[in-house]
Amino acid sequence: MNHLGEVLGLSGDFNQAYALHENAYKLALERQAGESLEAAISLSGMGAILTEQGKYAEAVPLYQKSLGIRRKHLPGNHPDIAADLQELGVNLFYQGEYEDAVGNLREALKMRRELYGGVHPDLAIAINDLAWALVEMGELNEAEALYREALGMQRTLLGDQHPEVALALSNVAWTLDNKGDLARAEKLYRQAIDVQRQALGESHPKLAVYLTNLAALLYQKGQIEEAVMTARSSLDLRRRLLGDEHPEVADSAINLAYWFIQMANYDEADRLLEQSLIIRRSTLGEEHPAVASAMILKAGVQVATQRYESARQLAQDAREILEVSLPNRHWRTAAAASVEGAALTGLGAFAEAEVLLLESNEILTEAPMPGVAEESEQRLHELYVAWGKEDQAQKFISAN
User: Fold this and answer.
1) Which pTM value belongs to this model?
2) Domain 118-182 top-level CATH class
3) What is the C-alpha to C-alpha distance for residues 240 and 219, in angstroms, rounded to an integer?
4) Rounded to whole angstroms, how far apart are CA atoms 385 and 93?
5) Domain chopping of the chain, boundaries
6) N or C: where does the chain have the smaller number of CB atoms within 10 Å of the terminal CB?
């Protein structure tokens, strides 16, 4: 039953897959085998399905339970224990519990090193998981070193022209991109694209990922026309390979929409965001954090085009989704509240807007996404100007 659940999970039939894992766990409980290794398989299987659905808060206790069982029955550095630690770390990170997440990922990596020594595919995955978390936390030097170690490992295992080497090149480039070393990052992004094309040709979904990364870098460099052209190529490739309803098509469309927002091309951004929302709602469900993220962007477009009431409602709905799925004071929830506050400013509800904008601004000053903190202060400036409170507006004048 657990094996069939894994197959269905891979095929995207999440509800049926979860039900099979859950039924297997219930049978284990009925047999008084709730602390067995078979029960741990069911628990981690349910956790994997919830992770795919973005239900990180629900996945965490399942992985914790599975991990506890496996620690009782298996040697201390068993691969299944390392796997649970990695999955637990990833889910905790998505929840914003960064220290605990990195602790689990470090422990998993230590186990993998003890198990496999210098070179092994599972060791490379553990290295990548920790490096990913460290990039998100801004620990870029350690992340770069880890990603370069994984790159060397993949070259040893697979040679220079393998798709996994392309991924490893892209990971190093992404770290350099975050460090502001755009020249070296661009070189590696282009190498990743070349390796991917040589290995699998022009028609592979992963190529679209690398094109998107390159487009983002070109945008940062001010090469707007080439950036948009590259992003369109990524979107067109995903549509051709995956169909119009695939989640990765939504991802590409949202990335392109974000740049159109920066360029004040709101009609094009709105069209892409609406397409993305339809796809994400149909594939991920109404309550997924990725749906809420698209809603925030769309609400921002509605504020910019003075559709304040619809923007307020959409941003409020996004905030309520994220309040359930993310921990308190998460920056994404604050971003939704900030857009909601901007909409209330447009509606003339200044006191309500002030509460949301001040509370969210406290959190957004530490947001990892570029431009979010500045936009938050800009909204406060605009609130106080509209309200006639010039002294208060002056406190945020630098954002104007």
Assistant:
1) 0.74
2) mainly alpha
3) 24
4) 38
5) 1-117, 118-182, 316-400
6) C
| 1-117 and 118-182 in the same fold | yes
d(CA 397, CA 102): 38
- Residue type for 47, please? G
What angle, 0 to 180 degrees and rounded to 10, lies between the N-to-C axes of helices 331-347 and 372-387? Answer: 20
Report the alpha-carbon distance of residue 316 to residue 307 in Å, rounded: 14
- Contacts of residue 40, Cβ cutoff 8 Å, sequence gap at least 6: 65, 66, 69, 70, 73, 80, 84
Side-chain half-sphere CA neighbours of 339 within 13 A: 33
352, two tokens: 């309500």
pLDDT on residue 34: 84
What would the pLDDT profile of 158-216 be if each residue is shown by its tens digit?
999 999 999 999 999 999 998 989 999 999 999 999 999 999 998 888 899 999 999 98
Q: Tell me the per-residue pLDDT of 329-387, one tens digit each, with 9 for 90 and over.
A: 889 999 999 999 999 999 999 999 999 999 999 999 987 777 889 999 999 999 999 99
Q: Which fold has domain 1-117?
A: 1.25.40
